Amino acid sequence: MRSTPELDARAGLDKLATYPYTILTWVDAGGYPISVAVEAAVDPAAGDALFAAPAGLTVPADRDVSLTGSHIRPQPGYGYDERRHVTVWGRVTSAARGQLRLTGDRAWGWDEAEVPFFEYSERSTGQSRKYFDALSRERGTPVRPRLSLGALTLRTTRLPFLTATIVPVVLGILVAASDGAFDLLSAVLTVIGASFVQLAINVSNDVFDTAQGADDANVTPTKFSGGSRVIQYGLVSFRQMATLATAFYLAAAAVGLLLLAIRGSTALLVIGVVGFVVGLGYTAPPLKLVYRGLGEIAVAIGFGPLMLLGAYVVQTRGALSWEPFVVSIPIALLVALILYVNEIPDRRGDARAGKRTLPVRFSQAAILGGYRLAVAAAYGVVVVGVVAGVLPIPTLLALLTIPLALRVERGLEPNYDNPYGLMAIMGINIQLHLFVGLALLAAYAIVLVVAAVAPGVPLFLGS
Amino acid sequence: MGTLPEPIERLLESALVGELTVVNPGGRPITYPLIPLYDGEKVYLTSSTLFSRKLEHIKGNPKVSVSITDPIAVGGRTDRATIQGDARVIEEDPHGGWERLLPIWEKKEPSIVYFLRSRIALPLFFERALIEVTPRRAFYWPDGSAAAAPVVTELGKEAA
User: Fold this and answer.
1) A202 and A325 inside one domain
2) CA angle (A189, A195, A198) in 5-degree steps
């Protein structure tokens, strides 16, 4: 993949005509390039540019010369922006009044207003790989790009996204505690085991998305979408990532078996098996749920009811109730919406890789409507849950996050085709899930405190 | 005093951007806008491995030029210059070797230090090689116009 498209001469001349001066460059008799600023009359329709011959220098007619336009806007204290440049190559012939005419035959350039810098960089990862491969051959030993161990760990595992696991798991533990069931050791093991599950899913997603070409096809990844890209960047090998994913799955399985041994129940076994199938089948063949437009449902089930109910039944030794299920629904919807929004900038690369996500399948209007509906449902479930007496009244604290949801909703449409503008919206959308989770955690903390200090105070409507 | 005529040194020190031209295997000049960094003796440029095709060309043909042509990039100065020289790619340590030039780079582009702190976000951009240009000949246009012949200064032995 070329980092920037080669232009035809006409397109190059069109761009060159917008620069106030051009840089005439040729290779002199000594083999060195030489550049001279000239004022050229560029005529894209005629396919040429006319300029006065530079005094004291001989522009050769027997080889390619070039005209380059280059622009930056200085930003004191920062550097510069508005970078763009274009070069048109061709042969020079003599024209009237001592002028020279360059007839363009090819061109190349970059304009960050057309191809943002981050996309330009992403499109160029192949060139970086080529560089390191050549350097490795030259030195006879592998040379790779590097990151510090801490940064590489964060990037490879996408550790900050563990909130998607910790929120439902801790919520499940608190709901169980509010029902009078709490065991510290199994609670800690549940958080650890569930975290291993998510780390395994994060890493294995990169492995399977790379194997199926989705991450390579994506040239507009952001820090919230497009995978960790450590394989694409050559920071970690495919084999190392596969090994790491396996290690995380084994660690998760070991903790899961331990929990089954000490707090086992049929419900926990079923949740564990379904969680494993959904987690691995998210990107792995043959299920490839996310490739079939089922990613949101898989994520909603996995990081909503399964995580929350799993944590709950560990504490209650298999006893189930409606309350943890109902409170898991807003978490499920909002975590699915993280994926849903993150898939918007990935949709072109995903389509190229045959990944039929919802933003690939449906129109912008449908996707925006879907977002509004799902967010409204998340809040609606909390309200209905409270009114029905299933959820405690303090869970209405979650409604305090509605302004965040409105910011996401308002930011989606204007940034739908702007991956880098969408990045801030994706960040707020992730905060929305986190803050709703924290509000629900706070609600159950209040329930526990009230139960301890004022047991008679009713916290459920109708109680 | 450095190796280059004083006005050209001032241009190099003030230029936010210059143009590095290399020669590809077909003999065609290819021009890249880059930040020129000058240590009083040699001109340095850095290239991310992402945009390393220029390095391949330099390894194939070390004859290059660095020109300073944009009045906006040099604080409104109207003089212009082109330096021809022999380039060497320094790539012993693409991860950190280039950072020795960070102090003079930061003077021109202060934001680079901020971006370097966020290296995790753009790791390949900060895997870089240095391009060291030993000046051989300099062309100087005091008023920036190619209507007058440049002042040419010979600076040293050329590459074979």
Assistant:
1) yes
2) 145
Residue with the two structure tokens 């906006």: B72
A85 plus A221 within the same structural domain:
no
Confidence at residue B160, expressed as pLDDT on a 0 to 100 scale: 56
Is residue B46 less than 8 Å (CB to CB) from chain A? no
Q: Helix (H, G, I), strand (E, B), or coil: what is residue A290? A: helix
Phi first, then psi: what are they for A194, rounded to 5°?
-65, -35
- Whether residues A230 and A285 share a domain: the answer is yes
Instruction: Enumerate residues 6+ apart whose C-beta is below 8 A from A140.
Output: none
Q: Residue A350 belongs to what H/E stretch?
A: helix A322-352
Q: Report strand pairing: A48-52 vs A99-111.
A: antiparallel
**Within an 8 Å CB–CB cutoff, is residue B153 touching chain A?**
no
Q: How many Cα atoms occupy the beta-carbon half-sphere of A219 within 13 Å? A: 17
Residues A79-107, mean pLDDT to the nearest whole number: 94
Domain count within chain B: 1
Instruction: Considering only residues A101 and A81, tell me which one the structure prediction assigns the higher pLDDT.
Output: A101
The whole domain housing B41 covers 6-144
* CA A418-A420-A425 angle, 5° bins: 90
Q: Inter-chain contact B49–A54, Cβ cutoff 8 Å?
A: no
Structure tokens at A299: 């994520």
CB-nearest to B29 from A66, A78, A134 is A66
In sequence order, the 6+-apart residues with CB closer than 8 A to the CB of A325 are: A305, A308, A309
Same domain, A364 and A246: yes
From residue A453, how far is each of A176, A181, A450, A456, B100 by CA, in Å?
18, 18, 5, 9, 63
Q: Give the pLDDT of residue A1.
A: 46
**Separation CA A138–CA A128 (nearest Å):** 15
Cβ within 8 Å of A, B 9-38: 16-17, 19, 21-23, 26-31, 33
CB atoms within 10 A of CB A416: 18
State whether B158 and A25 contact (CB < 8 Å).
no
What was the ipTM of the complex prediction? Answer: 0.96
Q: Which residue of A66, A74, A147 is in closest CB contact with B123?
A: A147
pLDDT tens, residue by residue, B48-84:
999 999 999 999 999 999 999 999 999 999 999 999 9
Q: What is the CATH number of the domain that holds B53?
A: 2.30.110.10
d(Cα B53, Cα A133) in Å, to the nearest integer? 13
Query: Searching chain B, which residue's CA lies closest to the CA of residue A124?
Result: B50
Largest CA distance in chain A: 101
Higher-confidence residue of A225 and A261: namely: A261
Task: Name every residue whose Cβ is closer than 8 Å to that of residue A197 and which is 6 or more positions away in sequence.
Answer: A165, A248, A252, A275, A276, A279
- Which residues on chain B are in Cβ contact (under 8 Å) with A124? 50-51, 124
Mean pLDDT of all residues belonging to chain A? 93
User: Chain A partners of B90 at a C-beta cutoff of 8 Å?
Assistant: none
List, for chain B, all residue ranges whose pLDDT scores fall below the cut of 50: none
Determine the structural domain holding residue A128 and report its residue range: 116-145
Q: Around Cβ B41, how many Cβ atoms within 10 Å? A: 12
Nearest to B33 by CA among B80, B67, B78, B60: B67
Two tokens, residue B78 = 């109207």
Closest approach of A211 to chain B, Cα-based (Å): 22
